Request: fold
Amino acid sequence: MGKNKKFEVFGTLSKSETLFTISDKTIPGTLVFESFQPFPGYYNEVPNEAKPVYLYIGLEKDYEVFEVSRAFQHIKKTKGWNFEAACASVKIYNKTFHTLRLRHLDSYDDIKPIQEAFAELGIKPKTITGKWKQEEGIITLKKTFCIQKVAKGIFMDCSEDYHAYILLPKYMTSEEFNEYNQQVIYNWFGSKFDSAKGAFYYKFKLREMVRIYSKKLDLNYLEDLQKLYLSKIK
Reply:
C-alpha cells in the first residue's frame, strides 16, 4: 500500500472521559451522556461550543455492529443528516452501558430525532431514572477508521481532523498502557496531545496502536512521538 493511498480499517479505541447525563432535547426518560472534556490531555479548559462534541446515546441492549451500521447508513441516506455514529460501551464504576457514540451534530436539537430514527429501525434507546454528574467513564469504541499511511508505523486519519495513529510493538492491558503513556507524557516537551489505546486490522493482522490528538500534527511531530513511545515500550 502506497503512502498516499487512503483505506478503511476496522478496530477499537479505549479511553477515559468525564461524562454527565443530559435530558434536554432528548426522548424523555432515556439515557444520554455528554463528554465533559473529550480530549483531556490536550485541552486546558472545557471547550465553549454551542453544539455537542461527543454524545453517548444509551441503547436497550448490545446490538451487533453491523445491525447498527445498517440503521445508520439508512438514516443518513433517507434523512440527509450530517453526523457520525459508532458503537461504544461506557463503564462507570461497576456498571456498563451499551451506547451509540455520536459526533458532528449541528445542534442539540438533533438528539431526539436521531434517537427516534434509530428506534424506528429497531435500535431502541435505554430508559433510565438515574443521573450522573462529571463521572469518569471508560469508553470502548468499535468503529471503522479511514487512514492514510504517512511513514512507517504512522497513519493520519482521513475523516477526522487532528487525529493520527502510531503503531505499537505489542499488546498491553489498560494498566500497562497507562503506565507507559505517562512515561511518554513526562518526557515529552513538544506541544500537548491527547492519547488513547487502540487496535485495528491492517494487512490481515491486528495491530496495536495509540491514537494521537493534537492541532499541531505534522510528520516531524509524529516521528518524534513515535521514537519516544518505542523507546519506552519494549
